[in-house]
């Protein structure tokens, strides 16, 4: 187990190198930052001098190595907009994003588990049809549309929730529903189909033949088995959560890493873009690792030694 | 009151699929006494498993018992509520299934699964249930039962898992054990051990057994009485010696002829022509007529009844009903 963990942690290093390269190339191709940094009436020689001072006249690979060297020291450069180091700027936005992500996951799980199980137990009933149809709808609705609609309904028309911002738990409800709905839809469908498959397994018949009641059958014998693929999906959904956070945070002005990234891209604040993309990539890697570790807790057949 | 532990009478179990009704079991009647071991034989698809699942009301949708009674201690199991039948499942009547590899839940330890059966039906605490489970595990011949108690199913071989299934099935001293092809998935040496174990435990605890199999060797070794099924019906019933000595129904004869015998090694092994018809494609008249070497005109038109004769056997065949009539 320990050996496995060390191996997995070491595997992160090459992945991070690839990410650093991609991030660097994207920014390299994005255009001349000097044009944005100097006033419009700056002379061409001033621009040249600025480029030389920033090392932008060096060949591509030298610039890349310098970037990686800085990166290893945790230095992503300085934000033009905030005039601060980019990495701390990104990191201080993390709690807000975590909070939203966790709340969305809670919303998604609370919706998906009962709906998925109920739908499977009442297969082909009217309720099942309704839930399955609803999950297709939930998956199909774009985040920004759902977000705006929720604001319109519950913050403008019924003025029950605040329109935007972060603060109390009330602020969190609409963004969490916006971000959680798509994930809930995906999870509901998955839990339903897993449950249906597992309820036909031989060991469920064995448990029934022992005299186990149908509730215990579903919630104990079948549910734990059906969780294994669900955890996979939850792990994969984290990347959706990040891309969803970009949109949802923008819609609700939620001061997280997503909003920061969108603003940084718009303002060509490349140091912040690099730092944010890098941190998000690292998060996704860590979540995948945690997902793999959770499998072991759920399924004794999986052994990492 | 009768001295029969279980009486199945005129059982009809049908499956209502999108392609129509499939009559898997059609009027099956048999009974079993306390401590008796009976065998149900037949090829795949003849309704053996459906019969056994019907007894414990374990038929899933779209299947349904449409007619008949299953009396256990003179109480009709088909009329019980889900709650009442749960008290009988695993307690008074328990089951062992064909596939030991998939019949245990992969995410719980075997000990947990046996203890669960005990705690469902007996008022004992966790510790006591564990103690009893360990005793059961050693009873079914598991080496090192204290350690194996904590083993997950995937760590055990098929034979070991079937022993666990037997331990689980016997955990509440059931009066009736239904074993649905308990040794089919196991190799021959393990088969022998498992059968011996079942037979010993049954005589020790005075448990009746319904043994479902297609293996006549197993039947010969284990049971007192044999029920032969074909096409969802019983075609012959007799005590095991008479059946092997003097099979009456052409299907039983065919089954016996297609079993290899050690002194006939050089002869060509006989087989029954054709395949078992699926329950929705049974021929007119006698179910077996299209595969029967003795089929007559009458067999193709009218289905014979199961007729009991004075020696305690019964057979569903025109050949024998004619004879009985002549003899009388």
TrEMBL record, chain A:
Q: Where in the cell is it found?
A: Cell membrane
Q: What is its main location?
A: membrane
Note the Gene3D superfamilies from the entry. Answer: MetI-like
Transmembrane feature ranges: 12-31, 100-120, 141-162, 168-185, 227-252, 272-295
Single GO cellular component term:
plasma membrane
Annotated ABC transmembrane type-1 domain ranges read 94-291
Membrane-topology annotation of the record: Multi-pass membrane protein
Which family does the record claim for this protein? Belongs to the binding-protein-dependent transport system permease family.
Per UniProt, the keywords (alphabetical) are: Cell membrane, Membrane, Transmembrane, Transmembrane helix, Transport
Family annotation (PANTHER family): ABC TRANSPORTER PERMEASE PROTEIN, DIPEPTIDE TRANSPORT SYSTEM PERMEASE PROTEIN DPPB-RELATED
Q: What is the organism field in this record?
A: Oceanobacillus jordanicus
* One GO term (biological process): transmembrane transport
What protein name is recorded for this chain? ABC transporter permease
What InterPro entries does the record point to? BPD_transp_1_N, MetI-like, MetI-like_sf
UniProtKB/TrEMBL annotation, chain B:
Instruction: Please report the record's description of how this protein sits within the membrane.
Output: Peripheral membrane protein
Provide a GO CC annotation, any one: plasma membrane
Could you tell me where this protein is found in the cell?
Cell membrane
Q: Identify the domain of life.
A: Bacteria
Record-annotated membrane-spanning stretches: none
GO terms of molecular function: ATP binding; ATP hydrolysis activity
- Keyword GTP-binding applies: no
Matching entries from CDD domains are given as: ABC_NikE_OppD_transporters (cd03257)
Domain ABC transporter, by residue range, is: 6-256
Q: Which GO terms describe its biological process?
A: peptide transport
Q: Report whether Transport shows up as a keyword of the record.
A: yes
Provide the alphabetized UniProt keywords. Answer: ATP-binding, Cell membrane, Membrane, Nucleotide-binding, Transport
Q: Which Gene3D superfamilies does the entry link to?
A: P-loop containing nucleotide triphosphate hydrolases (3.40.50.300)
Q: Identify its protein family.
A: Belongs to the ABC transporter superfamily.
- Report the PANTHER family cross-referenced here: DIPEPTIDE TRANSPORT ATP-BINDING PROTEIN DPPD (PTHR43297:SF2), OLIGOPEPTIDE TRANSPORT ATP-BINDING PROTEIN APPD (PTHR43297)
* Protein's name in the database: ABC transporter ATP-binding protein
Name the species this protein comes from.
Oceanobacillus jordanicus
């Amino acid at each position: 187990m320990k050996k496995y963990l060390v191996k997995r942690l070491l595997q992160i290093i090459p992945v991070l190198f690839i990410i650093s390269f991609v991030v660097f190339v994207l920014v390299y191709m994005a255009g001349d930052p000097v044009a944005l940094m100097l006033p419009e009436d700056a002379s061409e020689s001033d621009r040249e001098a600025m480029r030389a001072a920033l090392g932008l006249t060096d060949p591509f690979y030298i610039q890349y190595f310098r970037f990686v060297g800085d990166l290893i020291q945790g230095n992503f450069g300085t934000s033009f907009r905030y005039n601060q180091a980019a990495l701390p700027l990104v990191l201080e936005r993390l709690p807000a994003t975590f909070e939203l992500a966790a709340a969305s996951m809670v919303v998604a799980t609370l919706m998906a588990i009962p709906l998925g199980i109920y739908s499977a137990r009442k297969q082909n009933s009217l309720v099942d049809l309704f839930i399955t149809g609803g999950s297709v709808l939930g998956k199909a609705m774009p985040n920004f549309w759902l977000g705006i609609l929720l604001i319109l309904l519950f913050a403008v028309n019924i003025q029950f929730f605040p329109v935007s911002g972060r603060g109390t738990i009330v602020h969190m409800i609409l963004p969490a529903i916006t971000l959680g709905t798509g994930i809930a839809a995906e999870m509901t469908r998955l839990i339903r189909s897993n449950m249906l498959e597992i309820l036909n397994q031989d060991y469920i018949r064995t448990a029934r033949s022992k005299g186990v009641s149908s509730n215990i059958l579903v919630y104990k014998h079948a549910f734990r088995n059906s969780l294994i693929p669900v955890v996979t999906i939850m792990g994969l959904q984290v990347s959706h959560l990040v891309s969803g956070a970009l949109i949802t945070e923008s819609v609700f002005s939620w001061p997280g890493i997503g909003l920061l990234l969108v603003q940084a891209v718009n303002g060509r604040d490349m140091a912040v873009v690099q730092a944010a993309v890098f941190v998000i990539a690292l998060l996704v890697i860590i979540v995948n690792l945690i997902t793999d570790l959770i499998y072991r807790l759920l399924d004794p057949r999986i052994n990492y030694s | 009151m009768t001295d029969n532990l279980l009486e199945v009478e005129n059982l009809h179990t049908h499956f209502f699929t999108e392609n129509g009704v499939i009559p898997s079991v059609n009027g099956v009647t048999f009974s079993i006494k306390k401590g008796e071991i009976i065998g149900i034989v037949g090829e795949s698809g003849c309704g053996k498993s459906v019969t056994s699942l019907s007894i414990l009301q374990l038929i899933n949708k779209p299947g349904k018992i449409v007619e008949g009674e299953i009396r256990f201690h003179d109480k009709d199991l088909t009329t019980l509520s889900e709650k009442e039948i749960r008290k009988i499942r695993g307690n008074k009547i328990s089951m062992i299934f064909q596939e030991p590899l998939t019949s245990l839940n992969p995410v719980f330890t075997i000990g947990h699964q046996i203890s669960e059966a005990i705690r469902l039906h007996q008022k004992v605490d966790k510790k006591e249930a564990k103690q009893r489970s360990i005793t059961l595990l050693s009873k079914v011949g598991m080496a090192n039962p204290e350690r194996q108690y904590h083993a997950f199913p995937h760590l055990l071989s098929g034979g070991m898992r079937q022993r666990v299934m037997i331990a689980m099935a016997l955990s509440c001293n059931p009066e009736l054990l239904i074993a649905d092809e308990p040794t089919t998935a196991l190799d021959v040496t393990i088969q022998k051990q498992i059968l011996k174990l079942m037979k010993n435990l049954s005589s020790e605890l005075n448990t009746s057994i319904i043994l479902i199999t297609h293996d006549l060797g197993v039947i010969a070794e284990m049971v007192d009485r044999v029920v032969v099924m074909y096409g969802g019906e019983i075609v012959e019933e007799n005590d095991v010696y008479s059946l092997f000595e003097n099979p009456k129904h052409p299907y039983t004869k065919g089954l016996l002829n297609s079993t290899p015998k050690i002194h006939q090694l050089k002869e060509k092994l006989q087989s029954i022509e054709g395949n078992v018809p699926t329950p929705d494609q049974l021929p007119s008249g006698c179910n077996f007529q299209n595969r029967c070497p003795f089929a007559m005109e009458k067999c193709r038109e009218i289905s014979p009844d199961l007729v009991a004769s004075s020696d305690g056997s019964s057979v569903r065949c025109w050949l024998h009903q004619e004879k009985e009539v002549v003899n009388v």
